[in-house]
Amino acid sequence: MNTLKPGCFVLLSALAWTAACRVDKGTATTPSPSPTTTFSLSGRVSSRENSAPIASATLSIVDGPNAGKSTTTDASGNYNFTALQQSGFTVNATAAEFFSQSDGVTLTSDRTLNFLLRRQPTEITLTGHVTDAATAGPIAAAVVYINGRYRAITDNSGYYLVTGLLDYGSNHDYTYASAENYAADYRYIRGTIQNVRLYRIERIVAGESKLVTVAPDDTLCVNNVQDSPGVGTDYVCRSMFVVAPHDGAVTIEANATQDGAHPPLEVETRDVLPCCSERIGNPTTIQVSAGTVIVVNVEMPANSASSQSFVVNTSSPQ
User: Fold this and answer.
1) Runs of H (alpha helix) within the chain
2) Has residue 6 been placed in a domain?
3) Residue 70 domain-assigned?
4) Side-chain half-sphere CA neighbours of 18 within 13 A
5) 94's torsion region: left (phi>0), alpha (psi -120 to 50) or beta?
6) CA dihedral in degrees (233, 202, 274, 151; nearest 10)?
7) In the chain, how many domains are there?
8) How confident is residue 135, by pLDDT bands cut at 50, 70 and 90?
9) Domain final residue pick, 200, 227, 246
10) 220-253: per-residue pLDDT in tens?
């Protein structure tokens, strides 16, 4: 039923309501929704190799309610997303000359998410000569690897050429050179020309002593996982082989000729199953069978300024 506004009257003769006196039934007013709470996501994109900032990297949100949003890093490698909805989502970081990386984040407040991108490997063509350390004569048929993956064989003049990828980065890419009857050589790649000197394997019988001189440009010691190029402290070393004449324990000790100091020393057996027994220490003792070959690696820090000489003493099992 229609109602009258105050002060209105009815025209009975017209049997009609005066339009001005009608009151329409109104619709209830709906309250305005509360504004959605949003958050920011910021961080830094840098190089895994040297932590240098990466400018102009692109950060993209690839899924969730914030999908499609992107931003780029400034000169300091910093980025910032604003007005992001609360949710879980994936952020992808890309940059020229680097591998892309994705990481997930759950956003319930303002957050920081940093990225360390690994540089894509560059190709290198490496050349050089492999020679005998004692005679300086060329070594033919020596094998030279880049990072243990890309291989070349020396010609009759000891020359090699090998092309491969520098996929270790941070100046930790290395060559590995080997030849029959010579101790293998590891060294970091520095430039595109790399010459290698190989030492002939020296053998003594347990119970004898041997003078060993380690030079700053000798091979990197790569005798176990901890010694891998780029892992831990770098040492250079010279190797010698000790043959056990009998079953039993062989003790090996190395002493500096100048002051009797004990250098780092590692020993390992070859051609023994299960392979390989290994000991670290100076002196060190290892159990062997008759005929076992023990590889003795006398070491010094790779940043040493000069050569150092050591006497390696060995005991004979009885």
Assistant:
1) none
2) no
3) yes
4) 12
5) beta
6) 70
7) 3
8) very high
9) 200
10) 988 654 556 566 788 999 999 999 999 999 999 9
- Using CA atoms, how far residue 261 sits from 252, 255, 300, 310, in Å, is 14, 6, 11, 9
Q: Is 274 exposed, middle or buried, given 0-12, 13-18 or 19+ CB atoms closer than 10 A? A: exposed
Domain boundary (144, 172, 200) is at: 200
**CB 81 within 8 Å of CB 42:** yes
Q: What is the DSSP letter of 22?
A: -
**What is the DSSP code string of 28-70?**
PPPPPPPPPPEEEEEEEEEETTT--B-TT-EEEE-SSTTTT-E
Instruction: Give burial (CB, 10 Å; 0-12/13-18/19+) of 209.
Output: exposed
Sheet with strand 58-61: strands edge to edge = 70-72, 58-61, 87-94, 101-107
8 A C-beta contact, residue 37 and residue 5: no
Question: Considering the domain boundaries, does residue 17 fall inside one?
Answer: no
Residues 48 and 135 in one domain: no
Per the structure block, which two tokens stand in for 312?
Answer: 């390696």
Going 82 to 87 to 92 to 93, the CA torsion angle's sign is: positive
Q: What is the full DSSP assignment across 233-252?
A: S-EEEEEEEEE-SSSEEEEE
Written as six digits, the tokens of 159 are: 């020359």
Only one residue has tokens 């590889």, namely 295
The model's pTM is 0.69
277-311 burial: b if 16+ Cβ within 10 Å, else e:
eebbebbbebebeeebbbbbbbbbebeeeeebebe
Q: Could you tell me if 266 and 221 are in contact, meaning their C-beta atoms sit under 8 angstroms apart? A: yes
